[in-house]
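User: Hi! I'm working on a homework problem where we have to compare a predicted structure to a textbook description. Could you give me the structure for the chain below?
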Amino acid sequence: MSATIKYQSIINLAEVLGFKDLKAIEKNGILYITGMANSEADKQMVWDAYSKIDPEMRGGDLIMNIDVNPLAAPKEIIYEVVKGDSLSKIAKNYPGISWKDIYEANKNIIKNPDLIHIGWKLKIPVK
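Assistant: Happy to help. Predicted structure tokens:
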């Protein structure tokens, strides 16, 4: 399997997150991904996706050089609640964000932080 196919989900995620100057070039079985993320959280999401594919990061077939755009305006992330979610569980997906941060950003929807419903679209604050 080529490295591009192996890591296609990472490339797709970077595209969805709107990475600037995103390039994915495979040479001699090694995939080089470069680009500029809009936030540290977006950059971390890409690294987290990589760690799911290669948990020990020993594959030796991917080199990522991802910077964070210092001029990028913070953006809002929208998360749709799925079965089994809690604010704490959701917060674990976003480095630097606590369940309280999510609760505060969504007080107009969430009346009780211990009770959220499938299908709710929650704002995840970007820090």
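For your comparison, note the following. The chain has a mean pLDDT of 91. The longest strand covers residues 20-27. Good luck with the assignment!
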